[in-house]
């Protein structure tokens, strides 16, 4: 049997609270619950049960070679484009190069453990909205682009199992499998 899993950085509560406060007056938009906000480093669509222990061990090995990094949520955008958006996201500032190296190491470790990650290139972002259909979202991108959140030190990564449709409003439910510190 296989599970949908991902490795992510989770901004601390004060960072999520600041962004939630920024978005709150704009509640007419379908924002994702702040408890589910994360920065995906690697998404593995089908992790076989036999690979799970190796995946956690590989994650521990990778994070043992990486140090904490200072990050900040700043600006926003849309995937694939603002005029035909399916996803709205917040951008990142700070040690984005270090974040990219961490994502590469996590993805290589997952591959080595027998849990191949999805092949898309890493694009550092935090998803704040998933739209049910493609829509023109230029106005919302302009609003998100004005945001500059507090800095924080990212010092751990989390491995999650994703259970589709089991969360509130039919959204995914994310279950923490392991949390590993950056040293």
Blueprint (SSEs and pairs):
Elements: E1 2-9, H1 13-23, E2 39-48, H2 52-63, E3 69-81, E4 84-94, H3 96-112, E5 126-135, H4 138-144, E6 148-154, E7 156-163, E8 173-181
Antiparallel strand pairs: 1-2, 1-7, 3-4, 3-6, 4-5, 7-8
Describe this structure in words.
It contains four helices and eight strands, in the order βαβαββαβαβββ. With 183 residues, the protein is of the alpha+beta class. The protein has a single domain, classed as Cyclic phosphodiesterase (Cyclic Phosphodiesterase, Chain: A). A hairpin with a 2-residue loop joins strand 3 and strand 4. Helix 2 runs antiparallel to helix 3. The termini are far apart. Its EC number is 3.1.4.58. It is an enzyme of class 3 (hydrolase). This is RNA 2',3'-cyclic phosphodiesterase.
Brief summary of the model shown:
The protein is built from 4 helices and 8 strands; from the N terminus they run βαβαββαβαβββ. The chain is α+β, with helices and mostly antiparallel strands and 183 residues long. Strand 3 and strand 4 form a beta hairpin.
**Can you say what the CATH homologous superfamily is?**
Cyclic phosphodiesterase
Assigned CATH architecture: Alpha-Beta Complex
* N-to-C SSE string, H for helix and E for strand: EHEHEEHEHEEE
User: Could you report the average pLDDT, rounded to the nearest whole number?
Assistant: 94
Instruction: Kindly report the CATH topology.
Output: Cyclic Phosphodiesterase, Chain: A
- Number of discrete domains: 1
Say how many strands there are: 8
**Which regions have little confidence, pLDDT < 50, spanning 5+ residues?**
none
Note the quaternary state here. single chain
The main β sheet shows up as: 4 strands, antiparallel
Beta strand %: 35-45%
Structural class: alpha+beta
CATH uppermost class: Alpha Beta
Task: Kindly report how far apart the N and C termini lie.
Answer: 33 Å
Radius of gyration: 16 Å
- Global shape: globular
**Strand order across the biggest sheet?**
2-1-7-8
**What helical percentage do the residues reach?**
25-40%
Number of helices: 4
